[in-house]
Amino acid sequence: MTSRFARILSIGVASAALATAAVSTAGAEELSLSANVAMGTDYSFRGISQTDLDPTIQGGFDAGYGIFYIGTWASNISFAGGTEIDLYAGITPTLGPLDLDLGVIYYAYPSASDDGAETDYIELAISAGHDFGPFSASIGLNYSPDYTLESGDFFYPNGGVSIPVFDSWSIDGTVGYNIIDDEAAFGTPDYVDYSVGISYSYEQFTGTVSWVDTDLDDSECFGGADPEVCDGRVILSLSASF
Length: 242
Prior knowledge:
Helices cover 2% and strands 54% of the residues. The chain is an all-beta fold. The chain has a twelve-stranded antiparallel barrel with strand order 1-4-5-6-8-9-10-11-12-13-14-15. Strands 2-3 form a two-stranded antiparallel sheet.
């Protein structure tokens, strides 16, 4: 499980199912290329809707060589000019039984207005995963020295689990804790996000039904102006990798 694809599958259950969408590069000394596309009823990132509960279409490209990877990914959003583009790179070494991912992610909003606080930001990400046989699990930590909207230091400890239940079916869950230095600048206090869902994979396609939620009260969700974007909701998604 890796941290760099948290955005790719974030319309459904994200980090617990990342291994199925990632470019498999560890130990393979050859160039690998892949592409991905996804559609969903909502784009949820860390429990908060990025599309104001409207549908999303997303896609990206990845390249890997040995333990090294680089990629880009994009999605429609309902703020900052309507477009998000992510750029990322890193390495995926192994340490004993652990599959590690050490990466850097740049979140760009190229159509955002120059007025107001800066929306672009950079994150460092580290995660460790292990396949236990009946299930796989991961833990990770993301850190930004100046999170979006100039909200200062940001820490995101997170974890996920994926449990195969039948052929091609799995139950996936994630949880993360958003620690925000300048809560007023971002618009919410520190909060927990979590998700649980069921996925079905057939060849390069994956369909997911998930429940996504946060522990934010309506008044804590960006001043209560649009509390639905932080509330629990069902998200349907279909993704494909090539």
